[in-house]
Amino acid sequence: MDRSNFQQTIYRLSQYVGADVMEIQLPEVTPNFMSASLKIKQQTIYILCSDNQDWAFSQQLQPFKLQFIDHPLLANMLHHLAHIQVYCTSQLNAPFVAQSWMSKHDINYWKPQTLGEALFNWWD
Question: What is the pLDDT of residues 28-77, one digit of tens each?
């Protein structure tokens, strides 16, 4: 998903769920994902979209300290609006298994412990 489509998707999503878009961050060198922070009923939720179209939610956005969360309302709405499948926490926190498209050099150097660490990272 390109930057423009990501932004459009986030703003459409926020309208449907009555959320405020607090910030949209587009990566430079790192991280390897775009993010948007939404405020929903006094709760801030970060929506992540990786270079490979992987989607997730986190309750914080600090390098190497993502805390993945499930948010069924947002996940269902993203699926309805744009046919987006969002990873759930059980998938993201599962033990890491390398995928064929992942960089062996990065895996060997960074040694991710979970799928979430490999999909959403600040590796350079």
Answer: 888 999 999 999 999 999 999 998 899 999 999 998 899 999 999 999 99
**Rounded Cα distance, 29 and 58, in Å:** 21
Neighbours of 62 (CB within 10 A): 10
Angle between helices 3-17 and 72-82 (to 10 degrees): 120
Cβ(36)–Cβ(25) under 8 Å?
Answer: yes
Q: Report the alpha-carbon distance of residue 43 to residue 123 in Å, rounded.
A: 28
Please tell me the distance from the alpha carbon of residue 58 to that of residue 46, in angstroms, as a whole number: 5
Place of tokens 């744009």: 82
Q: What are the chain's domains?
A: 3-88 (3.30.310)
